[in-house]
UniProtKB/TrEMBL annotation:
Organism whose genome encodes this protein: Rossellomorea marisflavi
Topological relation to the membrane, as annotated: Lipid-anchor
Gene3D superfamilies reported in the protein's UniProt record: 3.40.50.2300
PANTHER family listed in its UniProt record: ABC TRANSPORTER GUANOSINE-BINDING PROTEIN NUPN, TRANSCRIPTIONAL ACTIVATOR PROTEIN MED
Lineage, top ranks: Bacteria, Bacillati, Bacillota, Bacilli, Bacillales
Signal sequence coordinates: 1-19
Annotated family: Belongs to the BMP lipoprotein family.
Lineage top rank: taxon: Bacteria
CDD domains in UniProt: PBP1_PrnA-like
UniProt xrefs under InterPro entries: BMP_lipoprotein, Peripla_BP_I, PnrA-like
Subcellular compartments: Cell membrane
Pfam families, per database record: Bmp (PF02608)
Name of the protein: ABC transporter substrate-binding protein
């Protein structure tokens, strides 16, 4: 990773036959570029969290940053633009950017990259992934505990391995809380299709689902709003999405992308050891978690079971299997 460039400013003031020289030095700010994922800025979820992490890094650590989007799908071009801006670090957000990022990383071996939600073996790429299945386990428990129909459901965006982790954890948690729970699943095949999210949520509600967990980006927002319109409970994802549908969202599975980005930059600037080329963050690392539970009132024994499950996952007594 490039070191912060030091600029030496020398002021020479001459008076008669004598000269007085003063030297001051100030480092250039550490610079970060980020390529956002498909749904772009303003998704109240994954992208906005990453942006928040960079804003915090700017305010508290003094970095500067810029961002790029690739609505036309030209991720290599967007990454090239960021590379040409000479950033110290370039972040690729989301598994869909991996192929383009690795192409650019091979072309620019001295450029440092951070890949979030996928794992790369390249030397100049650090990877950060999350144990979404651990946080989703807790959401599944809340869903099963609050369901009156005995049917709950999951909505994914693209049919991809990282989304399978959300689904698998949700299913395991729901069955841990209630072994005979009925679970419906479906995919919108897009992270950016509100209508598809609305339609799929509507179909699941017709099949008696009274709790919908959506891990589908902007498509998921359509699902949450439909759940609210139909009077059923739901759970958000990545960020606390309560304010999207305040009469429906009982909790959210927090995926702390903002904290991961801030900590990585902080460690880099303070030269703290970061020997692994990849990091996987779960409940014990505060990489994932559960947002405040609202709207519903869990019974004391249910809250106890939920808290105990979290501690057992952290201790390893409960092994939430990844798909």
């Amino acid at each position: 990773m490039k070191k912060i460039i030091m600029i030496l400013l020398t002021l020479v003031v001459m008076s008669g036959c004598s000269a007085v020289t003063k030297s001051t030095s100030s480092p250039e700010p550490y610079s970060v570029g980020i390529l956002l994922s498909d749904s772009g800025l303003g998704d109240d979820s994954f992208n906005d969290l990453a942006f928040n992490g960079l804003e915090r890094s700017r305010d508290e650590l003094g970095i500067i940053f810029d961002y790029a989007e690739a609505p036309d799908g030209n991720m290599e071009g967007a990454l090239e633009e960021l590379i040409n801006q000479k950033h110290d670090l370039i972040i690729g957000l989301g598994f869909s950017v991996q192929e383009a990022l690795e192409i650019e990383a091979k072309k620019h071996p001295k450029q440092a990259f951070l890949l979030i939600d996928a794992t790369s073996d390249l030397e100049n790429v650090t990877s950060v992934t999350f144990k979404e299945h651990e946080g989703s386990f807790l959401v599944g428990m809340v869903a099963a505990m609050t369901s009156k129909t005995g049917t709950v459901s999951f909505i994914g965006g693209e049919d991809a391995p990282v989304i399978h982790k959300f689904q698998s954890g949700f299913e395991q948690g729901a069955r841990y809380a209630k072994s005979d729970i009925n679970i419906l699943t479906g995919y919108t095949n897009s992270f950016n299709d509100l209508n598809a999210g609305e339609r799929l949520a509507g179909d699941q509600i017709k099949k008696k689902s009274d709790f919908i967990y959506a891990a589908a980006g902007m498509s998921g927002i359509g699902s949450l709003k439909t759940a609210q319109a139909k009077g059923v409970l739901s759970a958000g994802v990545d960020a606390d999405q309560f304010f999207i549908a305040e009469k429906s969202v009982a909790t959210s599975m927090m995926k702390n992308v903002d904290i991961a980005i801030y900590n990585f930059i902080d460690n880099t600037l303070n030269e703290k050891k970061q020997t692994p080329s990849s990091y996987e963050l779960g409940l014990s690392e505060n990489g994932v978690g559960l947002a405040q539970i609202r709207i519903v009132n869990l019974k004391p024994d249910q809250m106890k079971k939920l808290d105990e499950a979290k501690e057992k996952i952290i201790s390893g007594d409960i092994d939430v299997e990844a798909p």
